[in-house]
Structures
1.
Amino acid sequence: DMVYVDGGHDYSEAFIDLVYCLPILAPGAVIIADDCNDQFPGVYQACRLFADQEKFSVEIRDQKAILRKPK
């Protein structure tokens, strides 16, 4: 499973976008969050906090956050 998020660009919008994905994600599923870069620090912060809280792994690559739900 994979969800691609290209939503809000401030912290609270980005965090809520990620939270809304949770109910549909199977173990091992991936969320890809767009615009995770210096231009949108709120997206970066939301991805990091969400990953920490939900125990997701996170990798930042090509201005995208790749968040993987634990199996």
Note: Helices lie at 11-21, 41-54.
2.
Amino acid sequence: KLGMTSYRINVARSTFGGEDPLIDGTAEMTWPSIEQFHAAMESDDGRVAAADAERFAARIQLLIVDEWIVM
């Protein structure tokens, strides 16, 4: 689990206009802090998870974001 507080996968079905999506989906993973995220990624389990993801994902881009809850 690498210390995550949540892990969501969103699989793309289509675009709003009905075209094929440019990506297959997204994954959202959250940690209690950025420091815990970095520790998880630098751990042996984190390296194993990253290598596993590279086996099935054509492209991976990690975004570090701040969440703003609107409603």
Note: The two ends are 29 Å apart (CA to CA).
3.
Amino acid sequence: NHPPCYLGCGDRDLILSSTHTYEERLRAAGHRVRVHLYPGSTHGYFNFPEGDTKVQSQQDIVAFLSEIEEM
């Protein structure tokens, strides 16, 4: 049984299509998936030292983890 999965990706990420494919496969297999797309962001946005996208993605991840912790 696969745990709930969080996928965060920039909408300008070169692997965006792979993220969507992975999401589709997980859902098809019956797994719970949360996907967040970050407008204007490229691959590696999470590693940038500063920025609104990094802060928002951190908040989104914490919210997701809080939700699954309550399961």
Note: The chain is about 45% helix and 15% strand.
4.
Amino acid sequence: DAEDAIDDAQEAIDEASDDGEDTDDAEDLLAEAEDLLDDAQAAFDDEDWDEAEDLARDAEDKALEAMDELD
């Protein structure tokens, strides 16, 4: 799910940063993913199920994109 993808991306960013890699773009994408997940939670709290699902999916995609940025 989106939370797992965000956690995985953060771990990958941390490892890459420790190895001296430039992680700025990946960190920006991860921040976007976290914002999308926050929006998904807000939509869920408002019982807007479709929007919550769409935003959670977008958050997961953005987190995966952050990980791809490190390859």
Note: Helices lie at 2-18, 24-45, 49-69.
